[in-house]
Amino acid sequence: MEINPVKGTHDIYLEEADIYHDIEKCFSEVAMLYNYHEIRTPIIEHTNLFARSAGEDSDIVNKEMYTFLDKGGRSITLRPEMTAGVLRSIVSNKLYIAKEMPVRFFYSGPCFRYERPQAGRYRQFHQFGIETLGVNTPYNDVEVILMAKQMLSMIRLDNVTVKINSLGNEETRKNYRAALREYFGGHIENMCEDCKRRYELNPLRILDCKVPNDRPIIEKAPVITDFLTPEDKEWLNTVRDMLSDLGVETVLDTHLVRGLDYYTGVVFEIASNYKEAPDFGALGGGGHYAHLLKELGGPDLEGAGFSFGLERVASLCQIIFKEEIEKYQESLDFYVVGLNDENIQNNFKLITSLRLEGFISDMNYEVKSMKSIFKYASKIGSKFVIIAGDDEMNKGIVRVKNMLTEEQYDVPYDDQLFAKLHDLMKEYYEKRFNDNSEVEEESGDIN
Ligand code: AMP
């Protein structure tokens, strides 16, 4: 019986897996340039960690968590986001003491939310993000947004909008909550059951409601920007002005409140403007959190962070760079042919050296005809085939065939072999990718 993947999960393989790998590599490199270090935290955490951080009234905690009792009767949850676990780890390991301030980490890994699966929305998805703690100035927020933007630039996704808003300080949010309660008081009877509950517990969360009937009411609700204190406004303006000076324009989005309770002050989201790709929702988002570390048992250090959804970033790349991905797709460098058992056994030495030299290499492990081996090597897109059969070994050579031009070369099997193979590889790339260049025709022996 065939077992299907769990609804809302997906397998990532071949070219798509390469894209994920490249994105994570580029993002990590940017984070390291900003002097961040990697942190890997468990996928499972105690359930109350998320209730305390994301907020009991958030959709994530209320409806979307994968929670179960383990065999010891503990309530365990598969992380729905990464920030809470990272901060929990900073507290558990007292990383704020061991490290000089600011504490800065980047991370990547799977998250789980029981949401309705649709384009760009999965039940298991991957986040790449960063958290920084211990600096309480707008400059930290500037740097976090700058870094998010540079990560996307690093993978050449520049056609994006950075939406920004401020959730202000406690006083701001208290006044705003009161204004929302007053406004929604006149509408709540006609709104969904979730909103009725949110109205009682935390009217700010009504703004996350996606029920179509409720949206027109929500659109007309008071906006938090009208409640910001002069300090909140100055902070937000400093962040926006500095980013603008640094070449990152932001768009004020007064409806942006994010779905997690821990944010205070500046929040942001990055949206794609590429018309070629459907709107999967925000590529990533984050913001400032003043008290989350303290709420999780640590010192009162302010922090900021963001995460990208890798599924959305990868889907966008697959659409935007489709032609390039097809053209530049990495394939095998060398396929080594052995025509009898002795050849195959000998080829292990050659192929190991090729791999250590940095060439992606493979070989046949079963005796087959030359014709079928070549057919296979061509099908898998190997750049070269190396024949190291009895004849070649007797002559102290290997025969190298360029599968693009069909040229063949007899190359001595000596300490110059790899230098020659590098030359041949360079030539291959020039021919394949530099359509206009006149590469000298070579034939026959290159030695
Ligand atoms: P959040 O933790 O809700 O702020 O989300 C940060 C980013 O994670 C979003 O901008 C999305 O790119 C991604 N994300 C959140 N939920 C999902 C999901 N269910 N499926 C895919 N990506 C998601």
Summarize the structure in words.
With 447 residues, this protein is an alpha+beta fold. The protein folds into two domains: 14-168 and 228-323, Bira Bifunctional Protein, Domain 2 (BirA Bifunctional Protein, domain 2), CATH 3.30.930; 331-445, 3-Layer(aba) Sandwich (Rossmann fold), CATH 3.40.50.800. It contains 17 helices and 16 strands. It has helices at residues 14-33, 47-53, 59-63, 83-92, 95-98, 138-154, 170-185, 193-201, 215-219, 230-245, 292-295, 310-320, 322-328, 341-356, 370-379, 390-395, 417-433; strands spanning 37-38, 44-46, 66-69, 75-78, 103-112, 124-133, 160-166, 250-252, 266-272, 284-289, 303-309, 334-337, 361-363, 384-387, 397-402, 408-412. The strands form three sheets. It has an eight-stranded mixed β-sheet, sandwiched between helices. Strands 13-12-14-15-16 form a five-stranded mixed β-sheet, with helices on both faces. A three-stranded antiparallel β-sheet has the order 2-4-3. α1 (14-33) runs antiparallel to α6 (138-154) and α1 packs across α12 (310-320). The structure holds adenosine monophosphate.
Provide keyphrases for this structure.
single chain, 447 residues, alpha+beta, BirA Bifunctional Protein, domain 2, Rossmann fold, 2 domains, eight-stranded mixed beta sheet, binds adenosine monophosphate
CATH topology-level name of the largest domain: BirA Bifunctional Protein, domain 2
Number of domains: 2
Q: Supply the CATH superfamily name of the largest domain.
A: Bira Bifunctional Protein, Domain 2
Shape: elongated
Poorly predicted tracts of residues: 437-447
Largest sheet: 8 strands, mixed
Secondary structure tally: strands: 16
Report Rg.
28 Å
CATH architecture of the largest domain: 2-Layer Sandwich
Overall pLDDT metric: 93
* Biggest sheet: strand arrangement: 1-5-6-11-10-9-7-8
Strand content: 15-25%
Distance between the termini: 58 Å
